[in-house]
Amino acid sequence: MTGIVLAGVSMGQLIGPPLISQLIDVYGWRLSYIMLGGAVLLVVVLLAQFMRRDPTQMGQLPYGADQGKEVELSPDTQSFSLREAAYTAQFWLVFGIFFCFGFGVFAIAVHIVPHAIELGISATSAATILSCRGGMSLVGNNVLGGAADRIGNRQIFFFGFIMILAAFFWLVPASELWTLYLFAVIFGFAGGGMGASESPLVAGLFGLTSHGLIYGVIHLGFTAGAAVGPVVTGYIFDLTGGYRSAFLVCAAFSIAGVVLAALLGPTTRPHGRT
Questions:
Q1: The whole model's pTM is what?
Q2: In the chain, how many H helices and how many E strands?
Q3: Domains along the chain?
């Protein structure tokens, strides 16, 4: 279900780059971003009016409520508060996993187009690399999101980081457009599945009682990585005059993600806390 919902993000990544590239060519970047911001504001505000907090607002029951079903969570994970979760090793392992994920995702989002242009690829073609990544993210949302329901969300992060690591090693020597497309296919597919597994991973570890708050705080790891990744990548480019070392640093963070995902186990309540 998370994969289906996140498909909207991937769809935007698929359509957005070439569309915005065309707008910039015609209207310039200032007017293009005003148009984009106005369209986003209008669409979000309009669609938000159709959202409901829960099925009871429409005279319906939650799925399974008429059969007396309950969420299948163990007592040990059902009642974690943010304070309790923060005292577990799993909380900080997931924080680190999300940081590594955000570092790589936004380093690529910001720098893959300049890298392609530096290789002699046109700006329009370079923008389609991001679209390719978005399209494969759409596939990953649903394929790997569905697989997570069967094999577990931790495993999706473990294998996803391995795929991203392989993609970065492929990217370092890549110099032609088709090689960058292949990178985008692998990277987008893995990233889409990992994105769909974020919220379910946190829910499985800490339960649903304070899920929104716990997920929101842990997701600061992703946003921190998203803030640091592009800056570090750009700084290394400025120092070295190329992206080779920068992408190797991104690969190193992917290795760290693999290790953290391998260390992540079931949540246990800290001693002395109830």
A1: 0.79
A2: 11, 0
A3: 2-51+78-263 (1.20.1250.20)
